[in-house]
Design brief:
296 residues; single chain; mainly alpha; 14 helices
């Protein structure tokens, strides 16, 4: 059972659980008594492992160590960690609003606003940039499924939604998720927040949508035209999203989803009753030819 003892001790150390079996597990085994070679024990019974009472009691205690109390202790630890990090996240957002600039936020300011000690802060994060990095990673991870759902929408579904004056399927759900976390996304994406966060958000959207956007694409539109179009479209949508956040999310999720869907198909001439018809494939080829001529 020595292998089991090592496993139990490593699990207890990992989750911070005090093992009641530590004294038993760490106790040196008693030396076994050897019989004189001239008088070996004679037995006609078949040889098989013998399970002593001590071994059975030890296994029972080991099983109890892995049961409910240890699991509950780990769960309590996880809930406590989640509450602490949520308090620090909220305090960081409030400090950005109070100071007007993320670079002016200090550990002392965040911990005092959160009602925690500096020691507690440093048990979770190295510094303010590390806190910001973790918050942004968690936000992007939660946003990715909603972006992936949008990327799966095909042109037929999109056309049906537009003809019915409805948002793109999945857009409302994405904005609902963003509103849920808007209290800290707004300061981080705002003017006094982290400029790199906007780039990370654009990179996430580009990473998810780029391959899907190539599906059934007119080959004549490939090249610089498509690459810049994708950058333009993503930057525009993220920009509208950030303005909605900074403005206090006054529009409802469904209303804003509809606006963002329609804006993607608006050309400048449409706003003045003079629509401009652009042959995209031919225009893309023309710009490609211009680029080759300039290179020559």
């Amino acid at each position: 059972y020595c292998t089991w003892c090592a496993i139990i001790l490593s699990m207890c150390n990992k989750y911070g659980v005090v093992a009641p079996l530590a004294p038993v597990l760490l106790r040196s085994p008693r030396p076994s008594r050897t019989r004189h070679p001239r008088h070996p024990r004679r037995s006609h019974a078949p040889v098989h492992p013998v399970r002593t009472c001590n071994q059975e009691r030890l296994q029972k205690r080991m099983t109890q160590t892995l049961s409910a109390p240890a699991v509950l202790s780990v769960c309590k630890l996880d809930r406590r960690t989640a509450r602490t990090r949520a308090a620090l996240r909220k305090a960081l957002a409030e400090e950005i609003d109070a100071t007007g600039d993320l670079t002016s936020v200090t550990v002392t300011g965040v911990t005092e606003r959160a009602g925690l000690t500096r020691r507690t802060f440093y048990s979770h994060y190295k510094d303010i940039p590390d806190l910001v990095l973790h918050i942004e990673k968690e936000a992007l991870a939660e946003l990715r499924p909603a972006v992936e759902q949008l990327a799966r929408v095909n042109l037929v579904e999109l056309r049906e939604a537009i003809d019915s004056y409805k948002p793109c399927p999945g857009a409302t759900e994405m904005l609902r998720s963003i509103r849920k976390h808007g209290f800290y996304l707004r300061p981080l994406l705002g003017n006094g927040g982290d400029p790199a966060f906007q780039d990370k958000l654009k990179h996430l959207v580009h990473e998810v949508i780029a391959q899907r956007a190539l599906h059934d694409l007119d080959p004549r539109a490939l090249g610089p035209f498509f690459d810049y179009y994708l950058t333009f479209a993503i930057s525009a949508e993220v920009g509208v999203l950030i303005r909605w956040l900074i403005g206090g999310m006054r529009e409802s999720d469904e209303q804003m989803a509809g606006l963002m869907t329609g804006l993607m198909f608006v050309a400048p001439g449409d706003l003045y009753g003079k629509p401009i018809k652009l042959d995209v494939p031919r225009f893309a080829l023309a710009t490609l030819v211009l680029g080759e001529e300039n290179n020559d």
